[in-house]
């Protein structure tokens, strides 16, 4: 697997004007960041070139008994390499964690919409647990721009596995369960976030993490008039918007996490103070 | 597993579904010509999603998601769970309603040149009648009446498991439309041939089968069902032998009615088994969720397989079946 | 990084099923104590074959192949075909008859210390009655009445799909024996809860489910069914979600009757899902065909899983269920 | 899979007094003898030590969607190495054919009964197509004895893929479809087979091949009073006698190919002239 690192499917699809379907890519690195937390990198020029923060990639098991996709937010992009970070929670993630550089894996992506970061702002990336990967990528992309500021505010159960990655891109505050949670941190940072900044940038919260955490973040933000975008999770059948399996309840009815989201505003979710 | 490396995978030849292709083996289902005998299955195709992956108009037919008289919200999430070789879903027929369909998905599909089967959902006979009436002079090529959804409390499977209720409904719909009308059957019955006969005798032009099997998964971390609706419908390769036997039994009971075989098809070979069981055509469902171009790949694989089966190909071309 | 934890995961620890083991989580099914909640499923266990692979007496229960009044020849071969994640079989209940069973397999199993469930087959009510009468004062611990075999023309599934016929049969058998009597149900019905209720109300002490789903495969080289009997019964992992939903629905309908969950179990985790769905115990079938020690491995895996679920384990020990 | 070439299951089972269950072994060689005909070798000290001619081994796919066993007659044994020869006919054999030395595969065996070769005789090994592998093994084992003679009589469709192996052990005659079939050969050899031999050994036919061929062989043999043992095939569920899937019709009713057979006499099958 030294030469053909790029599935012919992608070339065929893009040449014909289509989005690449499920295709095989080469795994280039699998590292354990903390017990049961894995950083997984594969080579995929297409996804690397197109992925935006909060977009995700479906990984597929080699075992056809495990048919459904495993969606993971893109965590970093480096040239043609795409990195994910995931927790080993079940059979699929256990299998991926056992893979080694040189193995092949089927992927589909990039999928879903992204955070809205058009306007210059002070983006506050509030992540909890395995919600942090897409925020690392948001940090990476925001750090390439001259018109915004960004701060990572991460809460962990114990090991602060992502700080080393995100802090390469942006100013990072983190906390673990022994001290509190992201709300503890946000409370501490309240003055900093709501006060006037020298650069005049207004805060916008981008958040991803367990639902109860995101709900708390949304309420905290809306109470203070801070716009808040939340990247949601739901069990998926397809990940590309065709099966309507992945719904979340919004004020406008049930929406698809994979294609209407995964990013929704606090207002859309009805999570307003 | 594990040992699957790029080298191994590259050795398995794959069809290039993006290459322009001249279909060699078309068919005719209830009078409607199909470019090839492979359609998409309802609920696993949405134009807005699938059109980015392949030229959907090249399919034998496109069967769209069930439409109801008004928009439906469906069931709360989670709506899906994995099972060995398949999946369980309990979408509950969420859809934006027939009016939206008539101004959006249907005209777009017809504009692209697709042969369209419109799947019809209802909670009551009146619901079905209302939708069918609205579709009666639409551009849809065929209607597929879904009386087999296990994920709604009223309508759906409750009609499709009762020959009397089914006859009453199909007779009524028959009076509303002269469009080719397919009745989609559930496998969750004691005697599928009896239900099939009821549908045929009350005016169905064709039958499609199967819809999903009732199934569920439980999360052993919580002891509770994974799907919010608790049970759902099983589809994917795991249902293939059951679907095949359903088609076989209905074909044995009803030698003449066109049958669309559905269930677990993910290759040209599996499609071919359905044709040998007596189906006129097939639809590809869950396979498309995990490999968006699967329906097209199945169609292409089948086109190749039919080259070496001229007798079967000739029957299909004439709208006939193997048995 | 990439240190000990990963290495541990790679090793996929396997239980040594040959090691002597002290069962920690037994149960009681319809008054009969089981060493653990895992039995073998009928038709996938024969003492003469399985005893060479593991200490069969260590199973929660051994359910033997269906026995009929006289030896049965079963169906002609081929009798099996593969399907995605499972198999189709049409053995047709070949067995050497109840008299042979009473002098051969049963005494040997009891001699070894096994808890024995004798599966009973018949082509007619008289057949069942004759077998049950012969077993009434045998050493069998429980009887399992197979009214759900899809592979025989008379008896079998034709009784198990009709609540009236089933009630008549079970009432008659109830008068013949006071042994704990399990009725084994088929999933090939519109409403399994109605059949379950008929069985319970006519005197069944327990229910076991599911038997196989009707299915088939076709050989695309010939266009003909692979199995001589054409259709057969599907079992193995592919039927797991369907079986689980059947147990769930029967448990919802009948809160009190003991239920043995069967279908696609090949791991302790899958057994556990059945227990959370409301089963009192489980049986392992097809998994044993492709891995002879699978029933024992499932039992050992479940014993480990129950350690961290004391509430469930306590209920099982008391002959109760999770829901 | 370089070091642990012998699954611990086997050691555990035999130590406890049981027959080894399904266990993983190391593939040591996969060669193509002719288009679609593969010679497949794996290391298994247990099977190597115990297999007798006509016994078979179940191979299992790595793909759990393909659950059922693939039975193959043992074709040769060399030390700890067990060799099979098979035709690629479907998905399972295609997968095995793609394997390489060093891969792992699950096996169960040796299974079934064997040819009865107790008495000294002139064993005539009549094989057709993919029925020849067990006869190669019969030749190997018979050639180790001083009290019998053996002759291989093989019929092929085209490529005579097994002659090179069997002729190492015994005198070999073969034929392909362009010339005729094994009956053609047997007819030519009639005098040799039925006449008095210098060593006084009487002929016994051991046969394996397509059913119509074996039936013809059985009729040919019984007509001449030559005892004839035939190794049968049937689709299997378990291969070890527990599921009663693999039946063949005999004069005593339906018998299991896997455990009552695979070897049956012409008389048992009712194939008598
Ligand atoms: C948009 C999106 C982005 C995600 N990004 C990340 C990420 O960056 N890092 C990370 O660790 N996890 C992420 N997840 C969760 C991740 O998808 C699941 O942990 C993973 O699918 C579990 O797979 P498994 O085979 O180990 O678990 P199993 O329980 O064996 O999986 C069985 C099935 O359930 C599904 N499933 C199980 N848990 C979840 C879940 N929490 N969410 C969705 N599907 C689930 C699986 O996809 C699979 O279809 C994300 C989920 C979504 C929807
Ligand atoms: C006792 C015995 C010994 C055999 N020895 C040999 C041998 O030495 N060399 C050889 O080439 N073949 C042999 N066969 C046949 C061999 O088992 C099949 O060719 C093989 O199982 C096909 O597997 P597949 O996955 O490629 O085919 P598929 O058709 O994909 O297999 C699907 C299922 O059907 C079964 N099956 C398909 N064809 C056969 C068949 N002819 N016999 C039994 N099961 C079948 C498979 O085992 C599998 O369960 C033997 C069969 C038996 C019963
Ligand atoms: C997510 C999902 C949604 C479905 N929605 C519908 C539907 O709206 N109407 C319908 O008739 N069938 C619906 N079905 C059933 C499929 O059309 C098909 O009958 C079934 O899935 C079996 O085919 P398969 O195994 O190829 O998926 C749905 C199936 C799935 C998986
Ligand atoms: C080969 C075979 C033979 C069977 N014979 C019987 C039988 O004699 N009596 C019976 O009640 N069930 C019989 N069954 C059904 C099983 O006991 C079980 O209910 C079914 O296979 C589902 O479980 P599984 O998925 O674990 O195999 C048989 C199943 C198989 C595969
Ligand atoms: S997962 Fe299929 S629509 Fe979102
Ligand atoms: S294959 Fe199971 S008894 Fe022979």
From TrEMBL, chains A, D:
Membrane spanning residue stretches: none
InterPro entries: Cyt_c3_hydrogenase_gsu, Dihydroorotate_DH_Fe-S-bd, FAD-bd_FR_type, PyrK_electron_transfer
Matching Pfam families: DHODB_Fe-S_bind
Protein origin, superkingdom: Bacteria
Domain FAD-binding FR-type positions: 20-117
Signal sequence annotation: none
Protein name (database record): Dihydroorotate dehydrogenase electron transfer subunit
Automatic annotation (TrEMBL), chains B, C:
InterPro entries: DHO_dehydrogenase, DHOD_1B, Dihydroorotate_DH_1, Dihydroorotate_DH_1_2, Dihydroorotate_DH_cat, Dihydroorotate_DH_CS, Dihydroorotate_DH_I
Pfam (any one): DHO_dh
Amino-acid positions noted as binding FMN in the UniProt annotation, renumbered to this chain: 42, 65-66, 119, 146, 184, 210, 236, 263-264
Family according to the record: Belongs to the dihydroorotate dehydrogenase family. Type 1 subfamily.
Protein name: Dihydroorotate dehydrogenase
Pathway where it operates: Pyrimidine metabolism; UMP biosynthesis via de novo pathway
Residue ranges annotated for the Dihydroorotate dehydrogenase catalytic domain, each copy included: 28-306
Location(s) in or outside the cell: Cytoplasm
Organism: Bifidobacterium phasiani
EC id: 1.3.-.-
Function: Catalyzes the conversion of dihydroorotate to orotate.
Residues bound to substrate: 65, 89-93, 146, 211-212
Catalytic activity entry: (S)-dihydroorotate + A = orotate + AH2
An example molecular function term from Gene Ontology annotations: dihydroorotate dehydrogenase (NAD+) activity
Name of encoding gene: pyrD
Keywords on record: Cytoplasm, Flavoprotein, FMN, Oxidoreductase, Pyrimidine biosynthesis
